[in-house]
Structure formats: C-alpha cells, structure tokens
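Below is a filled-in request sheet from our internal design queue. Each sheet records the structural input a requester submitted and the sequence that came back. We keep these sheets so that new team members can see what a complete request looks like end to end.

REQUESTER: design group, bay 2
PRIORITY: normal
MODE: inverse folding
CHAIN LENGTH: 246
BACKBONE (tokenized):
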C-alpha cells in the first residue's frame, strides 16, 4: 500500500495528521472512488472530527458504508465519514456540530479492508466533489447566507456594512435577551440565521426574543462552548461565535 502525507488545513482527524491511502477518482466506471481514504498519525487509527460546522443528517449503519455520519453544511453541501468503529459514534441525526466535533473512531466496518476513514464531499444535488480542495482550505462550506446575515447585523447596529465581521462590528453589538432589547431589529436576523443553521426550535422569525428565542440561544451556547444563559452580550462569547470571530 502506497501512503502519501497530505498537509491538511481543515482536518478530519483529531491528531491532524492525514495519510492518503486511496485517491478520489470519478471516471464513471468501476474504478470510480468518490472519496478519499485516509489513515492517521503513525499510519494508525485516529478519531474522526467534523471538517466544518453543520447539522448531522445521517448517523447509522449500512452494509457498504459501515457506521457512518453525514453532515449538512451552511451551503447545503454534505461531508461524509465512513467505516467508523462500532459503538464509537458520538453524534445522532439532528445534532448540531461545530468544526472539530468528534464524530467517532476510525474503523473497518462495512465494505472496508483495514481500518481507515473514507471521507467524501457531495454538493446539494448529491453529486460527488473532490474532497482535496476542502481539506486544503481552498474551498469551504460557507454560503452567501453568512455574509448576508453579517451585513444585516451590521446595518441594524449602525456598524460599517461590508458583510465581513471584525472588531468594529463586535464593538457595536448590544445585549439581546428576553429582558433587554427584546424587540430590537437584530432579533429577527438572528432568528432567521439560527433557523437556517438547524436551530429549528427558534420557530418563525417574529422579531421578538421570547421563550423560543432564549431556548435556541441556550442550545447555540451549549454547542459553541459558551456560558449557557440565553443572553447574548458583547462580554460573553455568544456574539463572537455568532459572528465567527475568535
Ligand atoms: Zn474509500
């Protein structure tokens, strides 16, 4: 077996060392391989992590894929992680995950010969894409939706409107909760955005930070490692996470 090291920017293995054992090739015949096979550090087993934020749309077993997980991302593209070890899968359908969330452990289940990860990327019509540019960070799973969300937030906070969040945007943010600014125009944009990310419990975007809003914010805070209090402030990390600032 020939093994090639890939210098990955957006890892799918926890130890961030990726060795390619079988390449992606789509030829429309039996030699087609619509993903990349990888092994980890020291050519061994590693934990499998989400390449980017998204919603788990599949977490189950199939005779070909073994134990596998599919994540739908913001741009509706799907990343797929196959052949994981039985009993190691840590996510279920409907879970919201962030980049780096551990999905399970590399394994040898399904149609597999030796423990490895088969990593695949599909577009919104389920057509396989070459995963390499995604691993190298040359393509991503963002959509225009995020840029529009940021522009709307900037506009309603009287910040400079360019769709790119930065310290200036953050400095203009205000506290939003069921008690503070509960009908501020920014509430509606947050409702629409979080609904699109899979926080469906937020309900319809009525522009009012009510109990559903608080519940969804708490869920977002939990997923993103923030203090879970349902209150969005400049000082807590919630605004930073909403704006994807670190
Ligand atoms: Zn494969």
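RETURNED SEQUENCE:
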């Amino acid at each position: 077996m020939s093994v090639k090291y890939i210098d990955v920017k957006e890892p799918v293995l926890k130890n961030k060392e990726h060795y390619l054992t079988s390449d992606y090739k789509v030829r429309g015949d039996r030699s087609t391989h619509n993903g990349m096979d990888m092994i980890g550090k020291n050519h061994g087993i590693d934990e499998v992590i989400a390449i980017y934020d998204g919603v788990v749309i599949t977490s189950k077993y199939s005779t070909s894929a073994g134990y596998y997980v599919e994540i739908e991302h913001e741009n509706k593209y799907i990343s797929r992680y196959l052949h994981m070890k039985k009993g190691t899968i840590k996510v279920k359908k409907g879970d919201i995950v962030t980049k780096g969330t551990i999905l399970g452990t590399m394994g040898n289940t399904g149609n597999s010969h030796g423990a490895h990860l088969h990593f695949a990327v599909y577009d919104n019509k389920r057509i396989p894409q070459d995963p390499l540019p995604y691993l190298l960070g040359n393509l991503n799973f963002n959509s225009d939706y995020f840029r529009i969300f940021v522009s709307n937030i900037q506009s309603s906070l009287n910040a400079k409107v360019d769709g790119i969040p930065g310290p200036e945007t953050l400095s203009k943010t205000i506290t939003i909760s069921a008690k503070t600014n509960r009908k501020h125009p920014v509430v509606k944009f947050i409702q629409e955005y979080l609904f699109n990310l899979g926080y469906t419990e937020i309900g319809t975007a009525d522009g009012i930070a009510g109990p559903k809003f608080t519940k969804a914010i708490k869920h977002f805070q939990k997923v993103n490692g923030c203090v879970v209090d349902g209150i969005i402030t400049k000082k807590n990390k919630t605004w930073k996470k909403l704006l994807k600032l670190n």
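SHEET NOTES:
- DSSP finds six helices and eleven strands in the chain.
- The chain has a mean pLDDT of 95.
FILED BY: M.R.
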